[in-house]
Amino acid sequence: MAGQRAAELRRRPVPGEERARRRGHGGGSADAAATLVACSALWNAGLSKEQLAEIGAELGADVPFALMGGAAAGQGVGDELSPLLHRGTLHLVIAPASVGLSTPGVYRTLDSMREQAGVRAEDPDLDPDLVRAVSQADAETLSALMVNDLQAPAVSQLPELDDLLDLGLSEGAMQGIVSGSGPTVFFLAHDAAHASQLATSLEERAEVWALPVTAPVSGARLLTQKQRSAGGAHAS
Predict the structure, then answer these.
(1) What's the mean pLDDT in 198-202?
(2) In a shared domain, residues 130 and 192
(3) Assigned domain for 236 exists
(4) Which domain holds residue 164?
């Protein structure tokens, strides 16, 4: 029965992945993960998180992480996850963009940039200092190690991202970076109060939607009626 339900889940489209695929903040992957968890429960499929992650990887590389949550080191295309023990909380500000960028287009631009520069892409090694910083919620160290190869091609297609990143840094962000293939950006803050202040400044000065958030968080899960009444009404 579980195998039949898994096959059914594979056949059905998951709308969230399509709806948010051009935003670069994982909203589509989070929606897809929540949908898989909800369908598995609705149909009494009895699928484990590992089985759901296998199905999720067919929908998008980030879906397995959205199912697992927490902190993890991702390899391959991002779907080969190694969970990390973690303690503490990181404070971030996410600034979603009002326009989208094509993920394949950003990757093509990256390939072109590398070709012009004579740079050959190699499989990256896990930086132990980065893993340690994430595990310990060491914002100071993390701010010096954050990097995204897709940032340059994303900015080349949407130059205003560079202005937003500069603004965040001028407002005291520890670091700012494009999320995934963009166009969403996020900033690392010192603490909760700083994140709230930074979000307000970005909204006032750049007229963008800025959200103070914390990390890491749990993966997609079903909430009980009591949990929903306390503040959540959907898988998170």
Answers:
(1) 98
(2) yes
(3) no
(4) 90-215
What is the chain's mean pLDDT, rounded? Answer: 86
Cite the beta strand spans of 37-194 per DSSP E. Answer: 72-75, 80-83, 90-95, 175-178, 185-189
Domain presence at residue 235: no
> How confident is the model at residue 74, as a pLDDT?
86
The pLDDT, as a whole number, for residue 204 is 96
- CA 139 to CA 182: how far, in whole Å? 22
CA dist 221 to 36, 51, 59, 139, Å? 10, 14, 18, 27
**Axis-axis angle for helices 192-206, 160-170 (nearest 10):** 130
Asked if residue 51 has pLDDT above 50, the reply is: yes
Least Cα distance to 135 among 97, 86, 69, 184 occurs for 86
**Do 61 and 119 fall into the same domain?**
no
